[in-house]
Amino acid sequence: MTPVFPTVYFGNLAYYRSLFSLEEIKIESKEHFIKQTFRNRCEILTANGVQQLSIPVIRKNGSKTAIEEVEISNDTDWRKDHWKAIESAYSNSPYFEHYGNEVKELIYQNETNLLKFNLNIQSRIFSWFQIDTKTSFSSDYIIQNIDQRVLLNQNRLLTLKDTKTYIQVFGDLSDFTSNLSILDALFCQGPMTRKILMES
According to a count of CB atoms within 10 Å of the terminal CB, is the N or C end of the chain lower? Predict the structure, then answer.
């Protein structure tokens, strides 16, 4: 059975490590949107510690809104806030000049559907790190025994035990903050992030 993953907004390293070696995955499109998960939020490392960035959304059918129907709210200038936070956190990182404009472009894309918005981000991440996993959407809600959707609901999608550490902008190897948004590794490690994703 094809593994099913939830959609994510600049997902964490564990998410991309878990799918890196898979030939094919399905992105869940029929589940009901669950608040306070990585479907519309990510975590970056700032001078003040870990900061969550959350996309405001519109659920037309309340708690019964399927993820494929969730729209992005533009009532606030969240894109400006997210980019400002990312720029502040990573402008001094080794690879900010290389990837910064592309990340900004993804944040400011015109797509209003959350699922498609995230898919555009994921496609670019796949391109950056040469991830060949084929991706499709689920046509029905799929039940699986080992379910990445449930793990992500509990904000504990895998752990990165024994993962190679790297120098972060705000911290050293003895004070490493693991499993942040892939943006952290992207700006700090650039193409070498692929090696981290390949670790078993």
Answer: C
